[in-house]
């Protein structure tokens, strides 16, 4: 553990203007407040904040960050308050300590809710000041270093999983690769102890068997570059054990099948020297096609710059080589912390970097804990590809991203309005997966809205959160529209006319926020008709016994202009189409389920409220289902689809459900305008020689 004078001397070495007295006071304060508290290792508890502060000095961070590291657990684990911190160390330190403290105060919550709330506060605190994140990452790194002292395996695994899923990726996103690698290694040891032991054991064997092979290859690289006049530093190592494990898992290969176990880093003076060194190495040894990456011309979103290539050394040995300048290396290893703006004139750095803005948007859009965790992991934990707008603007996206993900990466409004995409000049479906270097032009429409089906193929958290938010808003709007029609019918059964004053009073009596929420509540059957009537006109239902047949709906509710799947759903058991006589089933907090009046499900008896609904005049468009029995001979299916085409009916789904020589039974879902359209199609099918039987399902 760092002693008081050692910590202060470290800070003064790179920041001679730092307030030595304030640093000493913070050190003494944390020792006094934590007092006799012990860690699981048996060490005094104050050793932890002191070590976290030591990690911050290695990054040469400002004195406010060092003091925050020393005090970060005092509010959570001692009697100290934020007001005390503010009085003794100033408002800036108090705000930072409060930001870090908020991230750790939720241990009693269920795991998913706790983790989600942790993340929510984490991102909001980061958006104000990224030093909160740096202290938290150092705090988690030191806790991981001492994780093995915790006796309960379940707790160790929970902390390791949270580190692997959240904190290591966050360290990567701010470019702190040293932190990321160590966190992953320590978490890997807890989560996959057998795999960890096997891989580290095999790496030790390679090191012992091949002796100085790493040094020999490093010397050969240095010599080849020196002969061309380049002064370089070369460092070699075996690849990271977790990186090897992930590659084994993703590619389904054994340890022996991974050929590029060794990796070498070449440090040069200038960016031009990077490309010169690359050319020399490619002339000296054979490069492996497809393994070259230029992160200097197109840096990663966290600022990472380097050239990556893979070469075949003697005896067919493969090796990975990374080439960068010394300045790039410093930034690559410690990211944002390596060029911290606080060290130059006290300017406040912009915490709202692009990926962080996306995370804040996800926090705002997420509906619950599960959703927030899902979207956040999507946003921070994936490999990236590069794609371009037609004007050349670069956007980094996770591998597997689609044109919809790209549209939302450019702007949420563009994603919401997307109807198509041109990829490299060709019109392609929105679900098309993007490749590195693709140029994407999004085709938009002012009348377009996000589709629920997009959730089946988008991969970015930002796109998924925006789609769900838009769909929820549309659902609420349409449920409110149905509720408004139901409300008018309910109000019409009362003896007097209902005005604004009565509605405002009803909203208050039912404990709702406003009139819109009342319409949503009525549309989703949160209240019975009787409750709504009583709220509008107290005493109006008093004369009716509780078991009376409850007021009959006076007019059908039209669903014209509403979207299936939003305020209501068309039942999959009977596939109603415009022209059918229909009825709606109402369940509390569920969408109205629309059935045909002769649906067998209704005949079985359904113990829910029935709602008289109608299509409304000139309502068109729905999906009807047909069951066809076709003769099993060449050309029958072509003849049937020709009937669909001539009838202008679009086939949504066609599936063979049974095959009995000489017949095949198919189920077909068709987009039709109304019942008459569907009836004409059935008539045409029955007249065909290819069809043995055709009937609606």
Describe the structure.
Strands 1, 2, 3, 4, 5 and 6 form a 6-stranded mixed β-sheet that branches. Helix 8 (111-128) crosses helix 18 and helix 22 crosses helix 24 (529-536). The model is unreliable at 105-110 and 339-352 (pLDDT under 50). This protein is 48% helix and 16% strand. The protein is an alpha+beta fold and 697 residues long. The termini are far apart. The protein is built from 27 helices and 20 strands.
Question: Could you estimate the helical fraction of the residues in percent?
Answer: 40-55%
Q: Cα-atom Rg, whole angstroms?
A: 33 Å
* C-alpha end-to-end distance: 76 Å
Indicate the proportion of strand residues: 15-25%
Task: Describe how the helices and strands are arranged.
Elements (H helix, E strand, L loop, with lengths): L3 H11 L5 H15 L12 H12 L4 H9 L2 H4 L4 H8 L1 H12 L8 H18 L2 H15 L7 H21 L3 H15 L1 H17 L3 H14 L6 E6 L2 H11 L10 E7 L2 H14 L1 E2 L5 E2 L12 E6 L5 E8 H13 L15 H12 L3 H12 L3 E5 L5 E5 L4 H8 L1 H6 E6 L2 E3 L9 E7 L16 H32 L7 H10 L5 H9 L5 H8 L20 E2 L9 E3 L11 E5 L5 E5 L3 H4 L5 E6 L7 E10 L4 H11 L3 E11 L2 E10 L2 H12 L4 E6 L1
Parallel strand pairs: 2-6, 7-11, 12-16, 13-15
Antiparallel strand pairs: 1-2, 3-5, 4-5, 5-6, 7-8, 9-10, 9-11, 14-15, 14-16, 17-19, 17-20, 18-19
Brief sketch in words of this structure:
This protein is α+β, with helices and mostly antiparallel strands and 697 residues long.
